[in-house]
């Protein structure tokens, strides 16, 4: 007899599955086709020592990255992506853009949280760097994780009732944020590792944490990464996943304009006028070239 459950963490060939009553069980996958990720709803059955994931239910979305060597899936059925960056150390716009493009390809809403609002000069410089993103529809919310003050109401309100995937570069404050909002996160991770009789998974596993016993609001924490491949994106689709370019692309002379060299390109004209950020256009051009090497 199978029953439904939610995958809250994955560890190699094992996953922790949570039942509707909140109880958890370590399960293993039956065959490669049943590989589940955090956020998946699965059908599982009991065995002598553990559960067995029989099948993965239909997904609303899947957030992942891919390069020439492999595809790495992070989580499924996400309500939103929170891109966490800090005013110091400096962050990469290329990394932010790649994450937002991948989210857009799966129709997952996203916003940017800018940490270290207490550092006035670096924070203002970072805000200037991100000034184009609100115009694209991506909120940029200030955040201060230093000290014991409560997080801003605007930020916590944005999380309520949703499953949020938290991602960001090293030094942005991701671990601090998770531990502020889920005080027992380290304990929960430790308990899972103990059950698996291994401590090595604590820093490499993607994990879903409920923010309260009501299990209405959740954060998904994932290991940091330096590269974010987009090999699953077709070069011709790239412009449609970048809002600041997409809004102008329909005015181009040619319907199949690459926005790189064709005459009558409205996108390039808007770059020359300063409407589209030169840096953003450079990211587009580099990504188009990168994806063209893969797909053609």
* Helicity range: 25-40%
The total tally of domains equals: 3
CATH class of the largest domain: Alpha Beta
How confident overall, as mean pLDDT? 89
Number of strands: 13
Number of DSSP helices?
9
| Inertia-based shape | globular
Question: Helix and strand string, N-terminal first?
Answer: EEEEEEEEHEHHEHEHHEEHHH
Structural class: alpha/beta
Radius of gyration, rounded? 21 Å
Determine the CATH topology of the largest domain: Rossmann fold
CATH architecture of the largest domain: 3-Layer(aba) Sandwich
How would you name the CATH homologous superfamily of the largest domain?
P-loop containing nucleotide triphosphate hydrolases
Strand % is: 15-25%
Contiguous runs where pLDDT drops below 50 for at least 5 residues: 199-203
In what order do the strands lie side by side in the largest sheet?
Answer: 10-9-8-11-13-12
Q: How does the major sheet shape up?
A: 6 strands, mixed
Question: What does this protein look like?
Answer:
With 296 residues, the chain is an alpha/beta fold. It has 3 domains: 3-56, OB fold (Dihydrolipoamide Acetyltransferase, E2P) (Beta Barrel); 62-221, Rossmann fold, CATH 3.40.50; 235-295, Probable gtpase engc, domain 3 (Ribonucleotide Reductase Protein R1, domain 1), CATH 1.10.40. It has 9 helices and 13 strands. The chain has a 6-stranded mixed beta sheet with strand order 10-9-8-11-13-12, with helices on both faces. Strands 1-2-3-5-4 form a 5-stranded mixed beta barrel. Strand 8, helix 1 and strand 9 form a beta-alpha-beta unit. The relative contact order is 0.12.
